[in-house]
Amino acid sequence: MKKIDKSKPVLVTGATGYVAGWLVKRLLEDGITVHAAIRDPEKEHKVHHLNGIASNSTGKIKYFKSDLLDEGSYADAMRGCELVFHTASPFTSEYEDPQKDLIEPAVKGTANVLEQANKTPSVKRVVLTSSCAAIYTDAIEVKETPEGKLTEDIWNTTASLDYQPYSYSKTLAEKKAWEIQKDQDQWDLVTINPSLVMGPPLNPNATTSESFSLLKQLGDGTFKMGAPKLGIGLVDVRDVAEAHFQAGFTSSAKGRYITSGHNTNFVELGEALEPKYGDSYPVPTKALPKWILLLIGPYVNKNLSRKFIRNNVNVEWKADNSKIKNDLNIEFRPIQETMEDSFQVLIDNKII
Q: Which Pfam families does the record cross-reference, listed alphabetically (predicted)?
């Protein structure tokens, strides 16, 4: 039970990120001083949106140059902080070497930040951005769970360097965090495990994340023949930021938190956009037959292997989000609001 003093600065790693931006906004609006640890604080276009928020808030923002792979590079940023939000981690399917591009930055980065917490006497709590990917690899695994849904007790055991290395990197990074946490008693650890995150970015120039390439495909005609009925969880970026905030400042918060608003699939995402955008954009409202995907998937996208299609298409995804609702009072926005707000940003910025 750690009570965090809001008059002390709070560290956010990877502060220019998609989720981190909304978290920084929430902290600043609460009058908190944010220590923003990022790779390139001198690049104005990277921090412009955060400066804008800070100038309209009661909180203050200070930038620190830090790199996930440089040991000790978070020392200055962490000094005097009781609360650390570690959100920085690679999220991409564009990698050459999964070990070097995904696993090492995720695991080493987590170790660097948490070992720095061990050396910083002021730190009382670390909130780590993990993922539902640390709980499962494929939707088909849901059927094998004790209650027919994913819960916080379950760990991913099926991802590997060769199959879904992103999920593997999130699993190893979170395991590393719990390992480091167990060896000390100065600070406690809370993890936020979101499903697929959607919602409007605060920095529209940064719409390069995986979420946005999917969103773009829902509007640019990629799926005009139909979308793969891929079972997923979906959560709004603003709800994920609120979950981090509550995990940081709720003394009784503990353990892992599945942060997912909806058990859904790609076709339902298209259907959510249809009423408002269906007349102007080719949003999909029907499912592409699985046999067609098995035939063409691997040629269209290297991540659509036949194994992945078999294990996720036309397979229901289900997770239990009752713990975060009960412990942190999180309420999730409706899918339609999330999808419309996200899609509108792509239109306003002429990305589609």
A: Epimerase
Q: What span, in angstroms and rounded, lies between the C-alpha atoms of 158 and 137?
A: 6
Tell me, what amino acid is at 269?
L
Residue located via tokens 């590997």: 160
Q: What is the pLDDT of residue 45?
A: 82
Query: In sequence order, which ranges of the chain are alpha helices (DSSP H)?
Result: 18-29, 44-55, 75-78, 98, 104-119, 165-182, 210-219, 237-249, 266-277, 290-300, 306-312, 322-328, 335-348
pLDDT at residue number 208: 58
Looking at residue 89, its amino acid is S
Q: How far is CA 66 from its chain centroid?
A: 20
Among residues 288, 294, 286, the alpha carbon closest in space to that of 269 is found at: 286
pLDDT value of position 64:
96
CATH topology of domain 10-348: Rossmann fold (3.40.50)
Q: In Å, how far are 46, 225, 227, 249, 302 from 299, measured between CA atoms?
A: 35, 16, 16, 47, 7
Nearest to 100 by CA among 69, 133, 72, 65: 69
Judged by DSSP in three states, 198 sits in strand
What is the pLDDT, as a whole number, of residue 211? Answer: 81
The segments of the chain whose pLDDT lies below 50 read: none
Report how far Cα 84 is from the mean position of its chain's Cα atoms: 16
Q: Would you kindly state where each structural domain of the chain is located, as residue ranges? A: 10-348
